[in-house]
Amino acid sequence: MNHEDENELFRRLESEMAEGEPGRVLDFDKARSARTASAEADSVPPTDRSEEAESGDTPVMVDPPAISGPGLMERIRGARRNALLPGWLRSKPELLDAAGWLVGYVGHTAAYHAIRTPYYAANLAARSPLGAAKVVGGTLRWVSDAEGEPLRQAAAASEDIGEYLKLSRQRDRRVRWRGAVVALSLLVGFPAALACYVLAPTGLLALSGTALVLVLGRVGAPADKPIISQAVVPTHVERLTSPMIERALGALGIAEINKALGKGGEGITFPHPIRQDGPGWRADVDLPYGVTVADILDRRERLASGLRRPLGCVWPEPVPDEHAGRMMLWVGHQALNKGKPNPGPLLNSGALSLFKPVPFGTDQRGRGVDLTLMYDNVLIGAMPGMGKTFALRNLLLAAALDVRAELLVWELKGTGDLAPLAKVAADYGSGPDDATAAAALESLRYVYRDLERRAKVIASLPKDKCPENKVTAELAKTKSLGLHPLVLAIDECQELFMHDKYRKEAANLCTAIIKRGRALGVILLLATQRPDKDSLPTAISANVGTRFCMRVMGQTENDMILGTSMYKRGIQASTFTKSDKGIGYLVGAVDEPQIVRGYYLDNPQADSVCERARQARIKAGTLSGMAAGEEPQREGRNETLLADILAVVPPKEAKVWNETVIERLAELRPETYEGWGAEQLTAALKPFGIETTQIGRRIDGKVVNRRGIIRVDIARTAAERDDKRDAG
Ligand SMILES: Nc1ncnc2c1ncn2[C@@H]1O[C@H](COP(=O)(O)OP(=O)(O)OP(=O)(O)O)[C@@H](O)[C@H]1O
């Protein structure tokens, strides 16, 4: 292109720019390629550029200059540092696990061969004559220079006399000195052996004889029949490679991935080398633009098929603090659900503190996952039979081993899976019936009342003792304060939240406990198999700190347990299979969701942990309530009801309709009374021996009869109860 043409092109460009709106994005590539296509001219005259820059219509550059982003220091500061030591060296349980495995491996190998030593010895002895013959034969062949025989034969056959004579002379020389070596050895060796035979102690003689026999046996053994068999057969797992991952991703049917892998596509990038990570391989993958880890999680099964690995081995995960397309793909050597169930450290551990992390399970890589229960509440959800009760029981066993913790345990299914806890629990009930649901509700009321008491105690404490206005390990130790950890567990809590009579009150109490209980040392543990808004009030699911979700049907249940948008973020418990029992997503224990397999303690093991916890409690003097043989109060009554009625019905109102009373009660304590009906008040007063009665009122000139209370009845019963309490 000559300068004329070039100027013409830029004139055109300028006029285009002038026509367009200000700041319009120009297709510079097009312009550039037009330039290069038509000529050899390799640069724009500097005058042209400066003119552009000076004119007000300078095109807007939308791409940053090539070198952009943070400066060198910022990049160095922001760089991610790789751990100095490998994970297994930093984590004590992993180190212990690896050391234990090594000791076991060495021990097994040693024992295996020790048992077979007589067999190995007999085998070698049997082969020693053949070994001796091989040694003698080999020596004779060496002395007679047998290895040169084929060459001599060849020279003779080809009648190459010169070569033959040369080889024969070499042989004669060799035979001479080799024969001398052997003769000398025999001359020295025989008398030496004879002397040893006569003079050496029997032990040394036997040892040398045995060694000789074994060596001869080893020499006599055929190469294809090893004497020592293998103690362990190593499993060979196929290495995870980038082509395998690309092949698997390409088979997912995601258009963007196919485009990236196709001809001219940008391919798939791996920001770090694929490496061994625990008992599996870890690959970090940058998915093509626009593809998220959630897209892959949706197709985990297909991915596993593409990798030719069982589903339980393939665990794609989002990477914390990275873009949505960065995937950590961990491919285990063995399916997670095929590993031997691990009872975990609770089986043998001594005392625990709920203020510190307690063992809960292991992640895919076998590393221990702990949970801190204090200042938290836990929600466990899954389809029936996936391991909710076992997971809940793990947490309760940990709580049982903290002798200070008061346990209230309710299992509303009636299978008795939590029965071992009855040995240590202040209150325990199991059953699908109304009475158990009512008792569980009573427990909630008790906890709620205790919440009020705890709040008062904390408020009355000097600031230096309670600087953060919450229960501390120190305060929990002081028995007189009554600020010990209070753990209330309800398995199949949907039974309570869907109960005809109790659902409203149960939901209100639970919500209040979840909201206020954390700082006051109250821990609520809930497990449900029906995570929907009717069976698990949203106020509860929204306020729980730690969530564990095993297999569920779909997005709604997933997000109900794990929290809103978790499914979209790729945390999908619906991808677990039927055999993934006890395996779930744990959210809230650390910053990022984890896949965890809960420790598996069967009934007898749970029983033995509870027995140990019981003994520890007896020793510490903290065994209380039902576990201590005290009769539980099962009156089904709300302890504050009478006082509450007296508070909302002034003495001048002698008779008040139930509906008026509950309206006022709901204003006083919405968490307890909201949703009560007139009938419920009548039922709630019955255990106190108070009957409601028909009360007539004239409305619009007509007499309307409705059930109501007589205030003096309430006041009398309340006074009697107070007297009794004072006397008792
Ligand atoms: N961590 C685990 N590892 C291996 N297997 C487990 C684990 N947890 C539970 N299981 C198995 O799953 C089975 C069901 O467990 P569990 O009774 O806790 O389920 P669930 O969800 O409470 O059931 P349901 O909804 O019927 O009450 C148990 O019998 C046990 O064999």
From TrEMBL:
InterPro entries per the UniProt record, alphabetical: FtsK/SpoIIIE/SftA, FtsK_dom, P-loop_NTPase
A biological-process GO annotation: cell division
Positions that bind ATP: 382-389
Top-level taxon of the source organism: Bacteria
Domain FtsK: 355-559
Disordered: annotated segments: 1-71
Pfam families: FtsK_SpoIIIE
Membrane spanning residue stretches: 179-200
Stretches with biased composition (Basic and acidic residues): 1-32
Alphabetized PROSITE patterns for the sequence: FTSK
Keywords recorded for this protein, A-Z: ATP-binding, Cell cycle, Cell division, Membrane, Nucleotide-binding, Transmembrane, Transmembrane helix
The name this protein goes by in its record: Cell division protein FtsK
Source organism (scientific name): Streptomyces oryzae
